[in-house]
Specification:
The protein is mostly helical. The chain has helices at about 1-25, 30-45, 55-80, 85-90, 95-105, 115-130, 150-175, 180-205, 215-235, 240-250, 250-260, 270-285, and strands spanning about 135-140, 140-145. The chain has twelve helices and two strands; from the N terminus they run ααααααββαααααα.
Amino acid sequence: MWVLLVLFYGVAKGFRDVIKKKALTKNTVMEVLFVYTFIAFVMCVPDARNAMGVPIHYYFLIAIKSFIIFVAWICSFKALDNIPISVYGVVDLSRMVFTTFFGVLVLGEQLTKNGLIGLIIVIIGLLILKQYPVTVARIKGKPVAVNEDIKTRYVVMALVSCICNAMSGCLDKIYMRDLNSSQLQFWYMFFLTVFYALYFVIKRVKINPSVWKNGWIWGMSILFFLADRALFIANSYKESKVTIMTLLKQSACIVTILSGKFIFKEKNVGYKLVCAGVVVAGIVIACM
């Protein structure tokens, strides 16, 4: 059951990244982030009665997780707003490497021989992506290289987001030993909403009222709420492993790459699919 729950999370995440890209065409990154987080928190409120009774020290620990995600989302949204979604989807696969590292180092999970081979293959796939091909167009009869604008700082932001999400995933597994899914989701979203509200107050950022009419944000919030609940429940299974769960989450990659071609009309999608194929092959080997 926990495997199916994590697969659902991965596919939902892929569609959520597509919706993020659409939402960001209408409003700024911080506007989308705040409203997205607030709506998701409101969805947790009806289950608030099941979220009570958290040990005092866990409020501080959950706040730490929320701050990590606060940073992760700012980085991921800014990256997604400035690089092709298909490239973002492949770079996002690198979180598997970081999560595996935390799973072995912090949680004491064993990395098998196949797991190590799979990791190496995933890294190779990401390195192949780095050798990104240019698109050759003909202008006035002459071939001209027209490369997609992929700025290094946004790729770095995507990687920072991957590291933060890997840390958060490790904390989820630890916290779910003593908490239930309602407790973790409610307080995690509460603190996350507070952090974004404080950001707006300190930075004196104004919200355009039109953001509340952005239907993409509402859809994204619903997907996030359902996917996160599935992930927290999966973490509650004692037999679930962070190293395997993060492999299963990479199903999001195929969704983002295919949407890059069919929805956003991006170029060189075939090349990116090859990179993703190498990464997926590493995932399959690691799960064997």
